[in-house]
Amino acid sequence: MNTPEQISEQYFTAWEAGDFDTLSGLLADGVDFVGTLGRASGREECLRGLRGLGRIVEKIEVQARVANDTDVITWFNLHTIGAPPTPTANWSHVEDGQITRIRVTFDPRAILAQRDH
């Protein structure tokens, strides 16, 4: 079984590539997501949110990843269409090889300004 750190790396690689089949396998059925731009409960709702934001994601530039036996914090620059890179923190909790909780925080103003144009 992969470590939480490896699962987190696979999550970001798949999201950046738009590989939602791989993402689906990394998320637990009951995954709970809370982020700056919304909430999602369950795998399908979480995937819908990732697909939505994925339409404007150009690149995910991971700066650092810190992990223990169940939790991973990833600090990255989120590059989106028309906005400067957005520093972002993502905390993921992993149980039995799948992500069960995700919390994300960033300043959304530049992304929202581009969306409104």
UniProtKB/TrEMBL annotation:
InterPro entries, sorted: NTF2-like_dom_sf, SnoaL-like
Pfam families: SnoaL_2 (PF12680)
SnoaL-like domain sequence ranges: 9-102
Gene3D superfamilies for this protein: 3.10.450.50
Coiled coil: none
Protein's name in the database: SnoaL-like domain-containing protein
